[in-house]
Amino acid sequence: MRASVLWAALSFYCGFAAAQTMRDPTRPPPGLGGLQASAVQAPASGPVLQSVILSPSRHAAIISGRLVERGAYYGDALLVEVAQDRVVLRTGAGTQVLKLYPGTEKRPPGEARDAP
User: Fold this and answer.
1) What ranges do the domains of the chain cover?
2) Structure pTM?
3) How far apart are CA 37 and CA 25, in angstroms?
4) What is the mean pLDDT for each group of 10 consecutive residues in the chain (116 residues)?
5) What are phi and psi of 76, to 5 degrees?
6) How large is the greatest C-alpha to C-alpha distance in the chain, in angstroms?
């Protein structure tokens, strides 16, 4: 009886120790773990458009974490236009367009892409 309890305890301990040394199957291979230098972007300077809110009764945007309604001010800039992918801020010095996806351009369907 005592030998079987000892054997069961030893089996449990070995199984527990083996489970701790298992490699995480969801972790990427060692060569792919770090970020590529080209994937790292410099932090944006100035306001960043994070989201737009469009409904029949509301036109607003989230700019750098702040909810701004159309016609309201973000700092010294007035939010004058809210579209699906951009907003327009107007200051005394001019206008500034903030894009939701700044690195992309909208093209007509069927237009060929530039070769890489």
Assistant:
1) 49-99
2) 0.56
3) 25
4) 70 60 75 55 76 96 96 96 96 94 81 62
5) -100, 10
6) 89
